[in-house]
Write a structure and sequence with these properties.
Length: about 400
Amino acid sequence: MKNGCLVISMVMLFISCKNEVNRVSENVLKKGIWKAELTVQDNKLLPFNFKLNEDESITIFNAEEKIIVNEVEIIGDSIIIQMPVYEGVLKGKIVSNEIIRGEFVKPSLQRTVPFILKHGDFQRFEVINESNADVEGSWEMVFSAHSKKDRYIAKGIFQQVAGKVIGTIRTTTGDYRYLEGVMDGKTMKLSTFDGAHAFLFEAEVRDNIMYGFFYSGNHWKEPFSAVKNENYELPSEESLTYLKEGYDKIEFSFPDTNGKMVSLNDERFENKVVVVQIMGTWCPNCLDETKYYTQFYNENKDKNIEFVSLAFEYAPTIEKANLAIKRLVDKVKVPYPVLLAQYGTSDKKKANEKLPMLNHVLSYPTSIFIDKKGKVRKIHTGFNGPATGEKYKEFQEEFKPFINQLLEE
């Protein structure tokens, strides 16, 4: 085998030097392209494609995104595929070298979604009818329009070539990352799977109007509608979260994974520009933002700037929450403190109790920009990640000059 693996007698034990792939099995799965189908509500199938590589790592494809999964364990007829960073895991039984059945599991939330994995160069979605509608462009969207509690607005940004569709959906709190799918007649079908979220969107499109449903795993379903509107924009990300009247600073004191309390009064943050990130290790938008902040910090750590993340974790115990933080720090190589602000729930109302100077915690992530005197200068709600294209570039073009402005003051 490749990667310097050892073969021990009749039982093969594979420990990949690069990919942490463990095998104690005589089952040899076929390499190449596979198709996964998760069964969500209404017996809808949520598909995605992946490749089983020669070194037995896995590459998951969502439009332009490629997710490398290198924690794979095969024992007998069982396979465990641990997704990177997140706790989500695919647990299955090998039916043959071309078929695996099992469940996508999120242990802390006690959620499971059944799946089947099939070897072969299958298309992501089966197409029955020739494309008969055009979704290219920007769409003004409303989700759960009839519910005051759940209603929210969004912007769909789609690209279509013949019957193939890719894009994303932006909300006031972030984006639904890389979506990929098709037009099947007048039906748009889009999906994504990243180990944290399994999303499926289906909608009928007629005369620049669409109506459909959004499925998240098999625990959530909601309706949405949209009209094509090339001029539509969401509210400014800097207008949604703000300090309550009478405040110009924030204060907190939370432990790191070693139990050491950290606050903005620590010497580390004195006379420095500080970016405070409200986040969770379970949150894909937070991961996108953390990767960007990590890169920026590494390129500018010689300047008077610091980052600190406040993690709001739904893991049920402090031990599991700290393990989730350590996993994120290890996988992304986060060079700044990630503190445990809350565990047992990611409820935003509970999060607001920890930061009562804010009008609300509306989104994970949220970034608070603090100048050298400790004054809050800006609060940015949500994060437009790489899937949003121009919006992601716009964020970077605004972020760097603003930080430089604070550094020069």
